[in-house]
C-alpha cells in the first residue's frame, strides 16, 4: 500500500487521482489552512490519519521513513 502525505492539500485532488486510478493508498497526513478547502477535502476523501491546519505546526521528523510520497 502506498503511503501518501500532502502539504497545501486543497480539496484532495492527488487522493482523488489515486482513487480513480485504483491505486491502493493510505493518507498518512494532509495539511490545509483554508477551512472551506478542508471541508471539501473531508467530504470527498477518506479522513487522513492526521489533518494539520497549518504547515508551520507540522513536525515532519516524526514521519521519517513512514511515507512513500510527499505531495
Secondary structure class reads alpha/beta
Order of helices and strands: EHEHEE
Which ranges are low-confidence, i.e. pLDDT below 50, for 5 or more consecutive residues? none
Which strand order do you get reading across the main beta sheet? Answer: 3-2-1-4
Which band does the percent of strand residues land in?
15-25%
Tally the beta strands: 4
Largest sheet: 4 strands, parallel
Distance between the amino and carboxyl termini: 16 Å
Q: Mind telling me the C-alpha Rg?
A: 11 Å
Shape: flat
Specify the helix fraction band: 25-40%
Counting DSSP H or I runs of 4 or more residues, the number of helices is 2
Mean pLDDT: 95
Report on this model:
By secondary structure, the chain is of the alpha/beta class. The chain contains two helices and four strands, in the order βαβαββ. α2 (35-44) links the parallel β2 (25-31) and β3. The longest helix has 10 residues, at 35-44. It is flat and about 30 Å long. The mean pLDDT is 95.
Write out key terms for the chains shown.
71 residues, 2 helices, 4 strands, 4-stranded parallel β-sheet, alpha/beta
Question: Any chance you could write out the topology, listing elements then pairs?
Answer:
Layout: E1 2-6, H1 13-20, E2 25-31, H2 35-44, E3 50-52, E4 69-70
Parallel strand pairs: 1-2, 1-4, 2-3
Give a short synopsis of this structure.
The protein is an alpha/beta fold and 71 residues long. Helix content is 25%, strand content 24%.
Amino acid at each position: 500500500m502506498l503511503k501518501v502525505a500532502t502539504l497545501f492539500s486543497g480539496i484532495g485532488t492527488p487522493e482523488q487521482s489515486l482513487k480513480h486510478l485504483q491505486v491502493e493508498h493510505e493518507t498518512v497526513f494532509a495539511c490545509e489552512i483554508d477551512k472551506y478547502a478542508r471541508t471539501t477535502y473531508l467530504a470527498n476523501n477518506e479522513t487522513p490519519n492526521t489533518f494539520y491546519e497549518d504547515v508551520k505546526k507540522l513536525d515532519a521528523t516524526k514521519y521519517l521513513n513512514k511515507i512513500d510520497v510527499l505531495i
